Amino acid sequence: MKIRINDPFWWDKSYNFQVGCSKISEGCRFCYAIPGTSRLKSHGNDQYIDVAKKINGRWKWTGQINRATDTIVNKPLRNTNTIFFANSMSDVFHKNSDDNTLLEVLDIMEENMWRQNTLMLLTKRPYNIMKFLERTGAGFPISTWLGVTVENRKALKRISILRDVPCAFRFLSIEPLLEDLGEVDLRGINFVIVGGESGGKHVRRMEYDWVKNIQEQCLYHGVPMWFKQWGRPESNPLAQSTPPGMTVNQWVRKKELEALVEQGIMCRKCTINGEEERCKKCNKIAKGGSLLDGKFFKDHPCRKRWYKKLLQEIGR
Ligand code: SF4
User: Fold this and answer.
1) Is the shortest distance between the CB of 33 and ligand 1 below 6 Å?
2) pLDDT, tens digit, 9 for 90 and up, residues 265-291
3) What is the assigned CATH class of domain 13-233?
């Protein structure tokens, strides 16, 4: 696992074995994937042909899903000990997804368990997971994590559907968090990611209390929580204390560097350079910053611990 504490992401590599989507709920309003798709298409990447088109000057999904090249589909075969986040430019369980592609990916994961790779499959359409399993007779290898997006109270019902899916590990992506979720049923949930909206010109605000509500529930139930980012800079409570002459981002970066020192976090490069000369990556901040009450709150279900527990459970 190569994740660093000030990284916004909880995974090592993206793995886009399919691209293309259509909007389904409030979390999709400023879908970050559409601008990326149009850019990649204009760079001559054939995989992105016809998945989006410009209508009245704005890019929109067409609903077409394209499979990636064999080289991309086989990506986990070139890595070990890596967490792959699948289909950041799509929804794995979109109704137009190709069953055969996912079956191929699951086979790769199953047959290469020795590589200790992990595959994270995230969806806003959990009702299609069971349909996929029934249709194909497939199962999820223990190295495959299944997750749902929960952006508002309406989306809470996705959690109970996920709980019924036969799989070894379930996670929630509470991003973008758009309102106070109230009580969240965390039974059977192994990991929670929380973050504010980051894409689009009209990024919506996330309130401190909404984040704390989830953090408290995760702490109470012992579920690791990864706080990704505030998104809109004004959502970050630090913004209110920005000293004159500094931008919010400069102030947040300064506070994050202090927190890195306080939490004793030095990457190998920074250890050589010294605290004042942080490497480029450690100097970067996530959108809006990611300190929660002055600390990085990035609890991750350590894969080594997870595999150890899992191997004990299955008696290996
Ligand atoms: S599910 Fe994800 S990729 Fe698809 S439209 Fe919504 S935000 Fe975009």
Assistant:
1) yes
2) 666 666 666 556 667 766 677 889 999
3) alpha beta
